[in-house]
Each structure stands twice: as structure tokens, then as C-alpha cells.
Batch of 2 targets.
Target 1
Amino acid sequence: MALFGSNVIGGNTDKLLTEAIRGAEEAGCTVERLDVVSLNLSGCRQIYHCVDKVHCVIQDEAEQYHTMLKEADGIIIATPVMTYGIPGQLKSFMDRCQPFYMAKYHRNNSFISDEHAKIRKTLFICISGMNTPEVFIGPILTVKAFCQIIDTKYFDELLQNDMDNVKKIETKPDVMKAAYEKGRALGEAITKARG
Ligand SMILES: Cc1cc2nc3c(=O)[nH]c(=O)nc-3n(C[C@H](O)[C@H](O)[C@H](O)COP(=O)(O)O)c2cc1C
């Protein structure tokens, strides 16, 4: 499953994600891409319905994609940095995975079996406009927490800063290649883990 966090179809994040998906597919995986900004979803309302219920009380498109998230062997998350974090819609999608959190940590009965958790792996692709050392700290912390909540290993990352100067990611063939190779490595690791 690929989660795309940008609004810009055909933009730089999109190009890197497309390469990573190509790599994963060439390693034998089937990838379903979800453009998270296109989803009709609301944020978590903190009413704690999921403390003892499997499903979120809000029956919108975020909830519908939980099944896909549960079944996925691998996840690629590709997003730009926004305000030192990840874009709001993608963050809301992650927050809405609180039913995973409650099942795992509150009821000690994760949606993901131990066997499946050993297979599940996530590749994180993130780009930023600025070139500051701390620009990816927020996004990485969020994505690592998300990986723990939904029981998937934080397998690898591709971080590209300075996009305000780089402008077009295709002027960085090494980064495009890295996206393909990291997607492929993810796919190969999953295929191997499946046995
Ligand atoms: C609302 C908004 C907030 C942003 N905040 C940051 C930021 O805090 N730090 C940063 O380095 N870049 C920031 N950016 C720049 C984007 O990360 C950058 O332009 C990125 O290349 C966009 O990729 P995309 O066109 O593929 O979506 C922001 C962009 C937008 C639209």
C-alpha cells in the first residue's frame, strides 16, 4: 500500500513515489496507491469509542481504508514536509488509526498477528523546501510512531531537503535512482519474509 501525502499530482513527491512503487512492483509486489488528500475524512474526535470497539465511530473513507492497511505486507509513505510536520490530511489519516492503537496497547490484541508483523515493512519518503538539519525530525517521529501503532517495521527512509533550490527532482538522478532502489529493496525484503 502506498500513501501519498502531497496535493501535487506529478510533483516531486509523486515522482519519487512512482519510482519507489516501480521498484516494489519489479520485486514482485502489487501496490495499491492511496492519494490521501482525495479522501473525504475527518480528524479523530477523541471520544474513545475505539477503547473497546474494533471500528472507528466515524464511518468515512479513512475507516474504509483500515482494512487495506491491515492486510498490507508493505507500506510506502511519501510526503512533503509541511510546517515542520506532515500535511494535515495525512496526519488525520494516521490519527484515525487510533483503533489500531487501542487494540494493540489497551486490549493487548493487535489487529496484526505476530506472524504478519514480522513481514510488514515501511519505507518513508519525505522532501522539504528548506535545507535545515531539523526539518525531518517531526515527520520521522510521526511516521515511526505510526509504524509502531499499525505494527510495521520502519524499514528505510529517503529524505531529500532543499527542494526550494533543487526545484525539479529529476535533476537529481541519484535521488530518483535511490527511490527506485529503496522501493525494490522493500519489495524484495517482503517477498523474502513471506517465504
Ligand atoms: C503549506 C506548506 C508548508 C510547508 N512547510 C514547510 C516546512 O515547514 N519546511 C520545509 O522545509 N518546507 C516546507 N514546505 C515546502 C515543501 O515541503 C516543498 O515545497 C516540497 O518540495 C513540496 O513537494 P510536492 O510539490 O511534491 O508536494 C511547505 C509547503 C507548503 C505548501
Target 2
Amino acid sequence: MQRKKIRFGIIGLGLMGKEFASAVARWCHLIDDKLPIPIITGVCDTSNEASRTWFINNFDSIKVSCSDYLELLASDEIDAVYCAVPHHLHEQIYIDILRSGKHLLGEKPFGIDLAANIKIQEEIEKHPELLVRCSSEFPYFPGAKRVTDWIKSGKYGQLIEVRSGFHHASDMDLNKPINWKRMIAINGEYGCMGDLGLHAQHIPFRMGWKPKWVFADLQKIAETRPDGKGNSVPCLTWDNAVLTTRCDDPNTGKDFTLVFETKRMAPGQTNTWFIEVYGTMGSVKFSTHDPKAFYFLETTGKEQGWTRIDIGPQSFIPTITGGIFEFGFSDSFQQMIGAFVQDLSNNIISDSFRNVTPEETLLSHRLMTAALESHKTGRRISL
Ligand SMILES: NC(=O)c1ccc[n+]([C@@H]2O[C@H](COP(=O)([O-])OP(=O)(O)OC[C@H]3O[C@@H](n4cnc5c(N)ncnc54)[C@H](O)[C@@H]3O)[C@@H](O)[C@H]2O)c1
């Protein structure tokens, strides 16, 4: 059977644009003879000439290479767009992608703020024929899959607390020059929440855990940073955020505490995504810090002990990788694109995990906007 091909354009050829391309380049890694094959046919970046050359040298499928994304959108050689540009550009570019009739896998936070997200939602409503999803790859780690499978089994009894977070430490280096991710005008008021929040929220939101209120504790730790030209400039974005929320668990009807942590200054952590679920009958935890380890605990009496098992590399879409090998970030990113093309071809297998939906990005924005207000007023804010 001839497998369907989906022609992708990439707008924004920086860190994530290249990650997307690399995942596509080794599509043979995935074993699913119904899975459509992504083909990169267009690339666009305003200023990154070296990156465009990298793409052209590595992908002979490229038909359009340009610096103006409207030129890419005008091409009939492209069915879907992966867009990875700074946050202040999401609103306009995502809207233009939808108006051009192309499917969209956008990057988080899906608009620089709530107003921008609402504008994108309004455009999405006008195009029910288009698939629109937001990037978030960590649920595709095999350990995270174990967590979601376990949550769905209800083995926790009644939820006590869930902690979900994302920690970085590269900003611990106070000599690290400032970049757009530390500038409010480009990254947004949310700071670390906008950058890291959806990663922490994807699984909890998908489990139906919607915050009823939030109490936020935000920190600005690095007050200045070098500008790379010998000067020191103010660094105004939030470095760390801890959001304590309360949610109802649709499975039991009982409420519980859900804590989201997004930190850029977390000593010793490099891109650590984690989730911990604590219940009356059982608990589990997984962290990309120790990517093979899945921990679980059954509450059978007075004493409890964690069991650690080393898990293999199998995620949602089967792969060629041997059962004893390790899974990594690039694998999770490839699985995420796999979920997007499955969705696009209406070939969702019962066991798969969908990408973040537009509605989930709206909930994320409502949460982060309420968090800003909570921190400012010192009060908990209803959502
Ligand atoms: N999913 C993840 O794990 C993950 C990780 C990092 C960043 N991100 C997100 O990806 C997006 C991009 O981040 P990045 O780290 O790749 O940034 P980056 O700075 O490495 O790359 C952004 C690219 O966009 C280009 N660009 C800027 N304006 C443009 C325009 N008008 N048209 C076309 N290209 C333009 C820049 O020249 C640059 O090459 C952000 O939304 C960010 O939050 C996601």
C-alpha cells in the first residue's frame, strides 16, 4: 500500500526548526505501515541564512526556500506548517498560516499572551477543516506513557497531590548573555511560565484536571545579564514559578492539589521534565533526569516503599530500537510529529496520545494570566 505523504513547510529555522527536520529525516525509525510520511518541501527564516543552507544541503525535497513566510504560504507544494518562531510573532504568523489553508503544528505558548491566543482561537474556528495542534513532546517518553497508562487505570485510589514541572539550570550562569527568551517584549510577561508551562500542563490537562483556582509564587532572580556587547542590561522576565492549584478529578469526583513548577534557575537540572502522582492507594513518578526509571508504590499498610523499574524505549508508535536501548529528547519529538500526522490522516490508534489542542492552549493562557494576577495581588485567583 502506498503510504500517504504530507508536505511540510517550516517557518523559523532555529533550534526547533532543525529538530523537526532531523526527526523527519529518520522517519524509517517508526514502524507503522499506515503512518503518513512527512516530506519537507519549504523552509523560511528571516535572518538565518546559514540555517537555510543547512536545510538545502540536507533535504533535496525542498521546493521553496525564502525569507518571507507569506511566500512559503503561497506555495501549493505545502500541506502543513511547523512554525517555531519567537512568541511575539505567533499571533500574526499562525493566523496567516490558517488563512493560507494549511494545517498547523505551532509552538508554545501559542500566542505571547491571552489576547493573542484568543485571536488565534477565533481564526481556528473559521477553519474547521484544518488540523491545529501545539508542540509538547515529553508525554511521548516511555516513562511518561507509563504514568498516563497508570493514571487511566485509576490505581491511585483518591488523588492527594500531583506535581508536574520543568526545570532548567543554564540560567544559573549569570554570565550567560541575554537572548529573546529573557525579554518581555519578545518572550512575554509570563516569562518562564510561557516558555515551559505547556510542557508541564499537557498531561494534567489531558487527564481532565482543570485548575479551579491558582496561587502563584513567581521569582525574578537574575536582575541583569550581559548583552553580548560588553554591557550589562536588565533581565526582567520571571525566572521561576510555582503555581499551586486545586482541581476536581473527574474519575473520583474528589478534589486534589496540583502543583506546576517551571524554573529556569533550578540548580543541577538540564531540561528536566517530571511528573509525580500521589494517591491514597498508589503513587508513581517519572523524570527525564533518569529517563529509564519508572517508580511506583502501592499503599498496602503502614509501611510503603518505592519500586524502581528500568523501562525500554517503546513509546506510542513502535520503533526499530531494541527493547533494551534508551529513549531521548529527539525520539520524543519524532513521536510527537507522528501523533500529528496520525491525527491528520484520521488514523488515531486507540493507544496514542494526541498533541496539545487549541482548547488546551487557551486553558494554559487562562492559568498563566491568573498566575500573574495572583502573584501581583498575593491572592488566589479563580479560573
Ligand atoms: N518544544 C520544545 O521543546 C521547545 C524548545 C525550545 C523552544 N520552543 C519554542 O519554539 C519556538 C522557537 O524557539 P527556538 O528555540 O527554536 O528559537 P530560535 O531563536 O532558535 O529560532 C527562532 C528562529 O525564528 C526565526 N524568525 C524570526 N522571525 C521570523 C519570521 N518573521 N519569519 C521566519 N523566521 C523568523 C529566527 O531568525 C530564528 O532562526 C518558540 O515558540 C519556543 O517557545 C519549543
